[in-house]
């Protein structure tokens, strides 16, 4: 979560270094997508230096990447998690790793908000839905159900956060296209993906559009795809459409840059910047 710091203006260079933090994955495509977004952000950054770290499974770790920035003379760092929502990783795991590394290295770190409902992410999610339907025969909205699928979280707030994102999508469309929507989660929250798909099928629509609200390729997306295959076999009269993930799109980089610049320009004089 952001500290209450002065907002950066378009003319203000970000004088702190930037540490982007990806989740980490064993999927090589997902890892490449994470690095591609980091490269887009770095290419447009006015920061003193930019590093990418991973929370788990991949190197460099948060500690190692932060140490690299400090070794290059940077003592003020903006940490930007490449995460969609403020769940366990953004609220606990990333801050804990940043706090430990900053204390060891003697630097100052502030963590940005997750991507959340930033307009660029909302627009990209809508675009992915349109791409999935572009080559298909039009079906009336009244005969279509969207199933938006999130990763899930154990903190009890997963459904509220995903519902907020769906509402942001409706506002993005100007309220002119209200889509019937079910929510589902791959892990740690209810309803599960299978439950959400079954609930959609019970309404007997002509089409169900399954929208994985996921950043990058990985096991979670594969689990969603498998659930769609099972639903298609169970309900063959329904047209099941699986939309693509968000992926390494420039709009993801745009949203991340906005989260970074919202922190405000460094240095901050005697005001310490700390992780939440």
Helix-and-strand structural type = alpha/beta
Average residue pLDDT = 88
- Which CATH C-level class of the largest domain is it? Alpha Beta
- Shape descriptor: elongated
Radius of gyration: 20 Å
Helix content: 40-55%
Sheet bearing the most strands, described? 4 strands, parallel
Number of strands: 8
Q: What amount of the residues lies in strands? A: 15-25%
Residue stretches low in confidence (pLDDT < 50, at least 5 long) are: 1-13, 267-276
Describe the structure.
By secondary structure, this protein is an alpha/beta fold. The protein folds into two domains: 17-115 and 249-261, Rossmann fold; 119-242, 3-Layer(aba) Sandwich (Rossmann fold). 41% of the residues lie in helices and 16% in strands. The protein contains eight helices and eight strands, in the order βαβαβαβαβαβαβαβα. It has helices at 28-43, 62-71, 88-105, 119-133, 158-172, 193-202, 219-234, 250-261; strands spanning 17-22, 50-54, 76-81, 108-111, 144-150, 181-185, 207-212, 239-242. The strands form two sheets. A four-stranded parallel β-sheet has the order 2-1-3-4, with helices on both faces. It has a four-stranded parallel β-sheet with strand order 6-5-7-8, sandwiched between helices. Strand 7 (207-212), helix 7 (219-234) and strand 8 form a beta-alpha-beta unit. Helix 1 (28-43) crosses helix 8 (250-261). The chain is elongated and about 60 Å long. It starts with 16 loop residues before the first strand and ends in a 15-residue tail after the last helix.
């Amino acid at each position: 979560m952001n500290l209450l710091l002065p907002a950066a203006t378009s003319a203000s260079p970000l004088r702190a270094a930037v540490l982007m933090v990806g989740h980490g994955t064993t999927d090589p495509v997902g890892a490449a997508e994470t690095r591609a977004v980091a490269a887009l952000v770095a290419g447009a950054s006015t920061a003193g230096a930019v590093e990418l770290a991973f929370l788990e499974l991949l190197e460099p770790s948060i500690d190692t990447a932060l140490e690299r920035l400090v070794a290059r003379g940077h003592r003020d760092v903006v940490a930007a998690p490449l995460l969609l929502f403020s769940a366990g990783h953004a609220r606990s795991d990333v801050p804990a790793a940043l706090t430990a590394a900053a204390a060891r290295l003697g630097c100052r770190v502030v963590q940005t908000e997750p991507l959340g409902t930033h307009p660029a992410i909302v627009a990209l999610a809508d675009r992915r839905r349109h791409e999935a339907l572009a080559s298909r025969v039009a079906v009336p909205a009244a005969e279509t159900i969207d199933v938006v699928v999130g990763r899930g979280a154990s903190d009890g707030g997963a459904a509220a956060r995903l519902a907020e994102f769906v509402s942001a999508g409706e506002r993005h469309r100007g309220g002119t296209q209200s889509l019937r929507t079910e929510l589902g989660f791959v892990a740690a929250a209810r309803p599960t993906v299978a439950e959400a798909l079954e609930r959609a099928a019970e309404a007997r629509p002509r089409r169900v559009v399954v929208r994985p609200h996921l950043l990058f390729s990985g096991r979670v997306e594969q689990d969603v795809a498998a659930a769609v295959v099972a639903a298609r076999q169970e309900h063959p009269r329904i047209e099941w459409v699986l939309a693509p993930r968000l992926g390494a799109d420039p709009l993801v980089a745009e949203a991340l840059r906005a989260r970074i610049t919202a922190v405000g320009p460094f240095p901050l004089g005697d005001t310490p910047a700390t992780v939440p």
